[in-house]
Structure formats: structure tokens, C-alpha cells
Amino acid sequence: MNSVVAELLGLFAEVLPRLVRISAFIAVGVFAANVAVAFGLIRYLAGLSGYLTRPANLPDEVGTAILTTAASTTAGYATLAEYRESGLLDDRATLVAVVINTFFGFLQHVFTYYVPVLIPILGATTGVLYVSARAGIALAITVTGVLLGGLLVSERNVDRSALDDIDGAGPETDDRDGRERVRDAAGKSWSTLRRIVPRLAVVYTLVIAFVTNYDVESLTAVAEPLTGVLGLPSAAVPVIAVYTLDTTAGAVAIEPLLGETFTPRTAVATLLIGGILSFAVSTFRRSIPFQYGIWGASFGTKVIVVNTALKLVFISLTVALLLVPAW
User: Fold this and answer.
1) What are the entry keywords (predicted)?
2) What pLDDT, in 10s, does the model give residues 152-199?
């Protein structure tokens, strides 16, 4: 009995400092991110959208949707849907605009999730490498959209006369004063912390206990042929499984193994592979309800197929680059 108590106390002694440190970073990061969003910082970052739409043969007004996506994915897609329904864009031009949207949709997650949540969990080196990889993937997809627009979109795909029937006011004006914006940012931050930290505590405790008491490498040796082909440790298998269901839990699962079992490159490659497998889960959980709600089943399916195909291609290329032994 005493040994069990001692073991539990030792476990909590190891988990608690890490949890407190990570929770503090998350709290500061999430609050700063919400304040930045409240004061419109992301909108300024999206101001370059016009330089992308013009080479893609899309109207400057489409940049409004891209700008809006950086602050709200739902609002950005809804704006594009309005352009399509009005006849400003046909299906081909709309798909190109959706692809170009990718990096700007990613921007909001940099400020609200990747930087304040994942980097504190993964640490500076692995965390920054992971976020940079995801940013590079999103940017590559956006650039691909610009190139496709230049090749496949022309005046036949755009009816500029439809602009007369579209409300060009853009997003609603935010008339909150500075104090109200900060207060709202604090409320959103507290809501995020209440959702993340308890789950973080449970998963972290289970992971530390598992890693402490069991040889993860030997338990997953059966997967060695698969992971060996990619040059990943066999411990990547349970991490990928966890990441497939929950990205934050996947990051928590790999963190205790950094430096010993995983290098920063193999860790990021493992998480990206988990991201590929998580598409199947996220498609049914989020993509189908969201895209079908915005576009309807027919065009929504096209959007899902195009988005998924491009992500698979560029994530696979990134994993291959990370696992090249020359650097």
C-alpha cells in the first residue's frame, strides 16, 4: 500500500511541474492571441490577399473573403458561397478561391492554437519545426491555387456584373471599446483553458505513467517493419493512434519521448502522419457537416475532395523531406 502511495506521489511530482508550466504558457498565449484577434491583428496580416487573387484571375473582391477567413473560417466560406450563388464565380473559380483560402484559414490557428498551445507542449525546437511545417504546407497549397487560377480561370469563369447584387460592406464593424475587447478576450481564454487543461492533466498523467512503467519500444515492436520503412521509431505507432483522435493529446503523448526516442524531425514527421490518418475522422466529424452546410452536398463534396487531395500530397512531401537523412 505504501509503495503504491509513494509511486502515485512520485508520479504527481513529475507531472505537476510540467502541467503548471505548460498551462501557464497556454494561458498567456491564448489570452494574447484572443486580444490580437479582438483588435484586428489577423485582418492586417491578411491584407496581402489581393496580390494572390489578381494573378489567379479572380476579382479583387474575392480578397475580402480571404481576409475574412483569416478571422473566421465560417464567415470566409460563407462570403465565397455568396459570390458563387450570385454568379460572380462559377464552380471552377470558386474551387480555386477555396484553395487560395488555405493559408489564410491556417493563420487564425497559428495565433489561437499552434503558438499558444502546441509549442508549449512540444517545446521550442520541435514545436516551431512542427508549426513551420504546417505553415509551409498551407502556403504551398495556397500558391498551388494561385498557379491553378492563372492556368484555369479566365473571364468566362467570372461574371463581374454580378457584383452589383452583392453587399460589398464586408464584415460587420466592431464597435466595442478597448476594455470590452480585452474582457471578451479574457472570457474566451478562460473557456479555452477550462476545455484544454483538465484533458491535458488526465492525458499527461496517463502518458507519464505509461512511459515510466512500460518499455514503449518493446510494446510496439510488432509495428517495426512499418515504421522501419519510414525510419521512424516503433513508438510512433501509439502516438499516431492518439493524434488521429485528438491533436493535443497526440502532442502530449510524444512530448515525454522527445530527445530519447524521437528527434525533432522524426517527431514532426510522426505528428504529420497522424494528421493524414486523422482526415478520415475529421472529415466525418467536421468537414462533411461544415462544407455541406455551406455549399450543399454536390459542391461540398468537390471542396472536400480537392482540399483533402492537396493536403495529402503536400503533407506526404513534407514527411519525405523531414525524413531525408542528408540534413
Assistant:
1) Membrane, Transmembrane, Transmembrane helix
2) 999 899 988 776 655 444 444 566 777 888 888 788 778 767 766 776
Three-state SS for the chain is CHHHHHHHHHHHHHHHHHHHHHHHHHHHHHHHHHHHHHCCHHHHHHHHHHHHHCCCCCCCCHHHHHHHHHHCHHHHHHHHHHHHHHCCECHHHHHHHHHHHHHHHHHHHHHHHHHHHHHHHHCHHHHHHHHHHHHHHHHHHHHHHHHHHHHHCCHHHECHHHHHHCCCCCCCCCCCCHHHHHHHHHHHHHHHHHHHHHHHHHHHHHHHHHHHHCCHHHHCHHHHHHHHHHCCCCCHHHHHHHHHHCHHHHHHHHHHHECCCECHHHHHHHHHHHHHHHHHHHHHHHHHHHHHHHHCHHHHHHHHHHHHHHHHHHHHHHHHHHCCCCC
Grid coordinates standing for 65? 473573403
Cell reading at 245? 483522435
Roughly what angle, to the nearest 10 degrees, separates helices 124-152 and 91-109?
160
Characterise 90 by phi-psi region: left (phi > 0), alpha (psi -120 to 50), beta (else).
beta
Q: State the burial class of residue 168 (Cβ atoms within 10 Å of its Cβ: 0-12, 13-18, 19+).
A: exposed
Read off φ and ψ for residue 68, nearest 5 degrees. -65, -35
Tell me how far apart the alpha carbons of residues 255 and 207 are, in angstroms, rounded to a whole number.
9
pTM of the model: 0.74
User: Could you tell me the pLDDT band of residue 90, with boundaries at 50, 70 and 90?
Assistant: very high
**Burial label, 313 (beta-carbon count in 10 A; 0-12, 13-18, 19+):** middle
Q: What is the CA radius of gyration of the chain?
A: 22
